[in-house]
Structure formats: C-alpha cells, structure tokens
Amino acid sequence: MRRLGGGLFAFSYTLLFFLFLFGPLVIMVITAFNSSAFPRVVPWECFTTDWFGVLVRNERLMTGLWTSLAIGLAVVAIAVPFGLAGALALADIGPRLRAGLYAVLITPILIPGVVLGISTIVFWSYVGRKLGAGYDTVFFNGLFLTLLGQVAFIASYAMLILSARLQRFDPTLTEAALDLGATPGQAFRKILLPFLKPALGSAAFITFLASFENYNTTVFTILAGNTFTTALASKIRLGTDPSLSALAVIIIAVTLIGAMVQEAHHRRRALLAGGRPERSWLYANPLTRLLTHPAAILLILLACASAIVWQASHHDAQACRADILSEKQRLQEKLLQEQQQRMQQRQTETPAAPAAPSNNPSPFGGAFNPGSLAPK
Amino acid sequence: MTMIARFFRDFSSRHGTGAASFVMAAVLFWIVFLILLPQLAMLDVSFRHNLPRPEIGGPKDVHTLDNYRYFLFGNSGGAALNALDIGVLVKTLVAAVLVTLLDILLCYPIAFILAHSASGAGARLMVIALIVPFWINDILRAFAFRILFGATGVINGVGLSLGLWTAPIDFIRADVALYAGLAYTYVLLMVFSIYNAVETLDRNQIEAARDMGASWWRVHWRIVLPVAKPGIASGATMVFMLTAGALAAPQILGGPSNLWFTQLIYQWFNDAGDWSRGSAYATILLVVCLAFVFVMMRIFRVSIGAIGR
Amino acid sequence: MTKDVVLDHVSIRFGGYTAVENAHLTIRGGEFFSFLGPSGCGKTTLLRCISGFVQPSEGRVLIGGEDMRNVGPNKRPTALIFQNLALFPLLTVAENIAFPLEVRRVGRKARRKRADELLEMIALPGTGDKKVHELSGGQKQRVAIARALAAEPDILLLDEPLSALDLKLRQHMRTELRAIQQRVGLTFIYITHDQGEALTMSDQVAVMNAGVIEQIDDPQTVYNQPRTPFVASFVGESNAISGVVLSQTGRLATLDTPLGPLVGQAAGGRTYLPRERCTLFVRPEQLFIADTPPEVNEIKARRVNEEFEGSIRTLYLEAGGKALRLYHMNAATSAALATGDGALTVSFKPEQATILPDDPALSG
Which superkingdom (chain C) (predicted)? Predict the structure, then answer.
C-alpha cells in the first residue's frame, strides 16, 4: 500500500469512528418510536408516533422555541455586522496592532460560557443600578441580557468565518475601484461586500445555530425566562421521556434534508462551473435537468417527509399498547403475588420485619402507564 | 489614541467614512461593553460582600477577599483547606485534559485520512457525515449518551446479554458517560483544526519519506506531526476551554456525587443567589483555565494567532 | 485634453526607508513615458504616488498644473492598470468595463452601449457577457485597458502590465499598446523592468535605481549615451573596462587599462582630471574583429567560447585578464574567426564607447 493511511486500517478506523459518531444518534432515533415511557430500545414495546404529540404539547418547550428563534434572529442581526467589523479592522490594521486585536477578539471564544453569562448580568445590573433603573427595565430583561451575552462570543465566530474569506480578497480590487472613480463607499458596497456575500451567508447560519444551541451563557442571562435549550435541559434534568428523542428525530431529519439540498446545490454549481453541463446525461434531458435543481430536490424531500408524517399520524398503537399493558399487569400481579408469598413466609419467620415493597427496583421503574400520557 | 485615529483615517480613505465609522463603533462597543467591562464588573463584584439591594453602596459595601478565602479554606477560617471545592476544580481540570487527549487520539487519524487518503466524493461524504451530528443540540447529544449508558441502556443491555458482566454497571456514576459525551461533543472542532493544518502538507513529502524506507509511524512522527502541531494546539486549546467550561453535559451526564466546577458556580449563583461568590468562582475558573492554556502554549511553542485558524 | 504631469522634488519615505529620493521631472501631455528599473527601485511607488494611493513625504505632484495633495485616487484624472490587472472577478466583462460609468451613475443602457464600443475597439466584440475567468491572458489585458479608458482619464498609468504574458504575446501587446496610445492620444506612464519594452514603446525613458532617477532621455540617447555606470550596465549589455585617465583632447579621453590604452568618449561632455579612476563602457555589438591592425583601441584577445544564435554569434573573449563579449553579425565574415589558436585582435570606434567616472563628485 503506497498511500499512507490508506488500506484496511484506515477503512476500519473510519468505520469505527463514524459508528461512534452515529451510534448514539441512531439509538436515540429508535427510542423515539418505542412506546416505553423511558427512552430505550430494549425491551421493545410498541411502535408509536405518540411521542411527537407529547413533544408538541409541551408548552414550556414551545414558548422557549419562539423565544430562541427571536433571540437567534436578533443575534444574527448584530453578531454578523460585529464580526464583519472585526474582520475588516483586522485586515486593515497595522501588523503590530493586529496580533493584539486578534487576541482580544478571539478571547470570547475561549472564555467559558458561564463566565460570559455571569459577567454580562453583573455588568448590566450594575449599569442599571447606577442609572437608577427598576427591575422592569431593559437592564434586568432576560432577552436583552441573553442577546448581549451571546453576541459577545458569537460575533467572534462570525469574525473567524469572514476573516478567512477576507484573506483571499485582493486589496488591489478596492484600489482599482477607487482609481476608476468610485468613492470609498461605492468600492466597499460594490466590490468588497459582494465578494464577502457567501461568507456572510454562512456566518449568519452559524451564528443563528450557535445562538439557538447555546446553554452555558444563556442559562444565566435569560434570568427567570426560558429558551428552547434551557427548557430542554431542565426537562432532561428533571426526568426524561422519549419526546426528546422525537425532537432529535425532527432535528436530524431537517439537518439531513438541508445537507442533501446543499450537496445538490454544490454539485450543480461544480457541474455548471465545469463549463460542460451538457456532457452529463442528467442535463441532456430537460426533466432530469430540472430535477437536479436544489429547489426541486428540496420539494421532493419535503413531500416525502410530509407523506411520512401523514402516514405516521394515522398510526394507532392503542391495540398493541393495550396488549403490553395487560401483559404488564399480569406480570405485576405475578410479582405482587410472589412478593406476598415471600412476605408471608418472612412474616412467619420474623414477624417484626418492616415491609418495604415500594422500593421495588423493577426494571420498569415507576413509569408503568405510558398510556396515560398518550392522546385519547 | 493616535493609533486609533490613524487607523480611522486610513480606513475611511480606503472604504469610506461610513464603513470606517461603523467598523470603529462596532469593534469598540464589542470590546468595551461586551468583553472588557463585563469581565471587570465581575472581577469587582467577586471582591465584594453579597448584600441585599438597599445596602449596596452603603457602609457595608466594601472590598473583601472573603469569597476567595472561602474557596481556599471554606468556613474553617484558614485552619484547613477547602478540600471539597479545590478538589472539584482539580478534578475538572484533570478531566478536561483527559477529554482533550482523548479527542486528539480519536481525531488525528480521521483528520489525516480525510486530508490525504479520501478522495473527491468520499471526502465530501465524510465532511457531511462529520458535520451532520453537530447540528444537533448539545443537550440532545448528552441525552443520547444518557440513553446509551443508562442502567437499562443499550451498552448495559448488550454487555449483559453477551455475559460480559452480570449486574448493570452504573456508567453515569463512574463518569464514563460524561467523558464519552464530552469527547463526542468536541470531536468536530478537533477534526477540523487538525485537518486544516495537515491538509497543507505536500503528499510528495510523505511519499519521499516512504521511498527512503521510513516506517509509517516514523513518517507521522517526523513529517506529519510537526505540520499538524499548530492545528492540534488550536483544537486542544478550544476543546480544553470548552470542556472545562461545560455546564450542560455535567448537569445531564454527571453522577449525583461528582460535580464539575461550573456546577459549583451555577449553584452559588442560581441556587444560593450569592452573586459575589459565584463571580469569585467564575473568576477563578477563568484565570486558572487561561493560565493553564498559556503555560501549555509556552511549553509547546504555539502562539495565540494559531487559534481559530 | 493633454495635461502635463509634474513631479516637483518628490521624495517618498516609509518609516526610515526611502523608496523614492527627490524625483523631479515633467511628463508632457500625450507622451509615452516609461520608468525603467530593477524590481524594488521605487518605480511602482512613484506610480502609486501619481495615482494617489501614496502621499509624497516631500515635494508635490502636479497634474495639469494642479497640486494633487488631498485629491483622492478617485478624483484624479488618472487610471491605473495594475500589474495583476485587478479585474473584478464577480462582474462580467461588460460590467467590468462599465464600472467607471456605473459609479458615476450613468444609466444601464448607456453603460452597456459604451462597453460594447470599447469591446469593439479592443477587438473583443461579443464577449461582454462572459465572466472574467473565461478570458485568456491577452484578452484580460485588453479588457483592463478598455476599463481604464472607460474612466476617460487624461493619463493612463501602467504597472508592468505585460509581465504575466508569455514572450510572443508580450511582443504583440507592445505594438498594440503603442498603437492604442497613438490612437487615443493619452499620456501613458509605463512602469517596467524590461528594457526592451521601455525602448520600443517610449518617447521618454527614466531609468531608476534604488529610489533615484539616474537618467531621463529618449530611448536612443539612453542606450547610446548612458549618463551613469548603472544606466550603462542596466540598459542593454556592456563590457565594462576600468582604468585611469591618461589624457583628454576635446570629447575623447584616453584611459590606461589592463588591456592597454583605450580611447572613448567622455560622457555628457565631462572633463576628466589626469589619473582620475574611470570605467569605459562598450557594447558587445560595437566591438569588432580587426583583420588589419587598427589605429586606436587595439585589443589582443583570445577566444574562450562562442555561441551561435542564428543572425548573430556571441564570442566570449579574454583579454588582459578581463572577460569580454562580442556580437558578430553572421553576414560579416572574418579570416581571424578561422584561426586555430583562438588569438584575434578586436577593436571599437572611440565615439562608440562611453567613459564614466567612478566617483562622479570629482570631475564636472
């Protein structure tokens, strides 16, 4: 094998690595469809889609979702321009100051999120106090504080993305524009910004995601409120059920659709840029050509997804669940009888022993009745 | 100040006064109001007593070392060290180092394969496969590991049915689930950091070394690793800081008796409502972590400019 | 329409480093003016100073009699063709050419019309909707010129625009550039390190070295009557022979050299002091093989090597411990070329050699 890292070792290592990456997700996805009240694969009880219903009816999560979306959009609107400003400043500042500025603008990524969260509320409550503002003002508003706390470090992400693109910008293009009579502002708008456009798009996407997912900072700055992520975390800490797996299924599905559309877009662009799209058989036929368009692929995938959702929403696990329930009840009765027998035996042996059957460490725990959670 | 003024003048002559004002205002606001002043405010509060609001600014509102003293000695008044909290900090740092090392070992081969063995479509597929798991929320990822490692989870199920062990193992209490979950969470960061560095390596160099009869581990040790070093350093710094500062994963995957230092901060701040002590603990975490990273960067001769590249 | 460019004692410094030292010259309107010099001699800095990207540390730049201090690059009547051309990669060819009009808020239709006219002029009609990366090197070159012309400048500045092209295309573009210049009648200020480009295209050439302009003359004078040792050795090939002055009669001076006494012309009408150290420069094509002993400048040489290059033959000679080079036209035959031992006599006409002082401060 001439190629280093090629061959059997590389193949099996890659396989194991991706098993590690996807194994937990696959298992989580499976648990979303098991009617067992505790998220698990075995024992398999009934195939059900009820957990999606449970998820949607969780009001705390749903209001958190809207809060998160609003915060996410606001963070994008502020962090991307800030990141752009940082990247531009880094690109144009003298070499001696550049290292220092880079270190300052990169530290928010390194500062632990909890520290950022705490420092944000401490500082703005201090400002609020100095201004004599009450608790109903912006300085004690969870949304406002979360916005500031998140922007502090998410703008650094945007800056990194935009800086990478900016490094490939040829500064003589700006000079050429100026030389041809453009004002500095025109050169900025007509030459530099269009060049940065793809990076601005991915920066907006990444900053939104970072904001939506953030927990460490937000859990402090949101104060008494809730975002989607903090609601999720407190739900998991208090006790879990498979509706969270159902959430994971939705997110994974959306991600996969997004990845496929993105890949289709990429391939199409590569094919078009190659200059000879007509060589590919996909492009010879107008119908297949239309089908390669990312929008068409998105539509097809969405159609598939909604068909699955419609089909699944009509799935009824009642019969199966009733079976399981009666099975469980039988088992329970059997256990109960055995226990009673044991207790009677024990009572006859040591009559003074206290009975503690409530701590029964049955593998089913206390979640006996998933049917009570399901819609009627 | 003159430097800032000169920067403003040069910048506006290139990109216009509007762009220059925007850049100046945004960067200054960001640095001053979002980074610098909040940290200073936190530092200040950490040196104060936790007072009810009416007493703030009153005669009792003085600077004090109480909160730091508490971290070191607890309520013993200097007689004995606060073994509990110091222990938690040390444990957090050690665990973060372990997770970082685990990630380096795990990701170096993949980054190398991605950069130098996979081709065209295969490489793109690998990149997508790497990224997809990370669109999923941190919290849900931790949740997946809880399902995996729970007493009735898949691992225990498989282990029991294969007869590898006879009673369910409490992976959560043993922190196995936590380390695995943390390592998993930051895999992507590490892979792409190393990938970016390794990718710049000319494949001919490797082949030349192979031609001269170097064994594959020697090729890695002498040729690939030096190129990968800045990437490893960048990835390790980020993974270490993020792991040491992680809150969600320890809350979800941590055993009931094993605390992460961030959880102590959270408890002081949110459960006890003691902002001063919470700030002091946060400051301790920040300073200790940054100091650790800087020492490491010194030892391995890496500059901060390498981070994030 | 025609505006003179005046550099009035311009010096440009970056920190402690002097890029341009006391440049003082006038470029007449409608002229093709070249700055010739090795890389790093400050010629690009001077060009960027004229276009407004660099401010002079001392002195003034005047265009059409107006002081250009505090006039931005976008307000000057100049257009610069960058070394890398700096075509906008995201715009089409037509949008590139029409960019100067777009920023002046000319309507879309008028813009397109002007772009098509210019494309016609540079012989690239119908390429307006192509992307820049679809063009060849020579086509990009012409688009860059068209874009600069669309700005309707009085002065076109060109920063080594041909350096990225291959030899054939470069020679073709030389004639084309000169033709365009004569057609549009603009002032062209051209920067190059290639003496061939400077000599073939220019009306005037300024030779620069280490930030200093050493000579400004028309191409023939620069070539035939170099004013400094640098110009003599940088522009064209030269054999440099150093020695001390024996005597001077009129413009002709005699030098005592290791090759014997040699007579040449004192540069710029200088008068040398006896025993002053000087160098005599004679071009390889001015050296000839003397079949009969010449009156003056008789050099006994030995042939070391020779190269056949078609029309000419380069002889590598050795005389008095000094290596000489001689271009021999193949049409001219010589008996001496055939002798077996390689010994031959070479000579040159005194008025075709230039004598320059090693220390210019001594003589006047």
Answer: Bacteria
Chain A positions touching B126 (Cβ under 8 A) are 14
Work out the percent of chain C whose per-residue pLDDT is above 90. 20
**Tokens representing residue B250 in the block:** 């320890």
Query: Which of A118, A185, A248 is the closest to B136 by Cβ?
Result: A248
> How does DSSP assign B244-293, residue by residue?
HT--HHHHHHS-TT---HHHHHHIIIIIS--HHHHHHHHHHHHHHHHHHH
Model confidence at A280, pLDDT cuts 50, 70, 90, reads low
Cβ within 8 Å, pair A180-C103: yes
Bridge partners of residue C356, in order along the sequence: C279
What is residue A282's predicted lDDT score, i.e. its pLDDT?
64
Dihedral, A362, A367, A368, A374 alpha carbons, nearest 10: -160
Q: How far is A31 from chain B (nearest CA, A)?
A: 9
- Subunit contact C80:A179, Cβ cutoff 8 A: yes
**How confident is the model over A50-72, as pLDDT tens digits?**
778 778 778 888 888 899 999 99
Pairing of strands C32-36, C204-209: parallel
CA C154 to CA C186: how far, in whole Å?
Answer: 6
Out of A17-31, A304-318, C204-218, C302-316, the most confident range is: C204-218
Buried b (16+ CB within 10 A) or exposed e, C23-60: bebebebbbbbbbbbeeebbbbbbbbbbbbbbebeebe
Q: Where are the domain boundaries for CATH 3.40.50.300 in chain C? A: 5-225
Is the Cβ–Cβ distance between C173 and C162 less than 8 Å?
yes
Given a cut of 50, the residues of chain C with pLDDT beneath it are: none
Q: State whether C78 and A179 contact (CB < 8 Å).
A: yes
Q: Do A182 and C148 touch (CB under 8 A)?
A: no
Smallest CA–CA distance from C134 into chain A, residue:
A275
Asked if C54 reaches chain A (Cβ–Cβ under 8 Å), the answer is no
Cis peptide before A43 (omega within 30 of 0): yes
In chain C, whose CA is at the least distance from the CA of A176? C86
Smallest CA–CA distance from C88 into chain A, residue: A173
pLDDT of A207 above 70: yes
CA distances to B105, B153, B185, B293, C241 from B100, rounded to whole Å, are 9, 26, 11, 12, 70
What is the model's pLDDT at position A156? 92
Would strands C204-209 and C78-81 be described as parallel, antiparallel, or unpaired? unpaired
Flag whether pLDDT at A264 surpasses 60.
yes
Q: What is the CA radius of gyration of chain A?
A: 29
Condensed to tens digits (0 to 9), the pLDDT of residues B240-286 reads 988 888 888 888 887 777 788 888 888 888 887 788 888 888 889 88
Residue A310 pLDDT level (bands cut at 50, 70, 90): confident
- Neighbouring C-beta atoms of residue C231, cutoff 10 Å: 27
Q: How far lies A54's CA from each of A321, A370, B26, in Å? A: 16, 11, 44
Helix (H) or strand (E) holding C266: strand C260-266
Distance from CA of C115 to the nearest CA of A (A): 14
CATH number of this structure's domain C5-225, picked from the four choices 3.90.550.10, 3.40.50.300, 3.40.50.2300, 3.40.50.10300: 3.40.50.300
Q: Percent of chain B beyond pLDDT 70?
A: 93
What is the per-residue pLDDT for A52? Answer: 81
Q: What is the ipTM of this complex?
A: 0.85
Residue C143: name the closest of C128, C165, C163 by CA: C128
Q: pLDDT digits over C203-237, tens only? A: 999 999 988 999 999 999 898 888 888 898 888 88
Nearest to A172 among C79, C86, C103 (CB): C86
Q: List the single residue in C52, C86, C102 with the smallest CB-CB distance to A176.
A: C86
Distance from CA of A345 to the nearest CA of B (A): 27
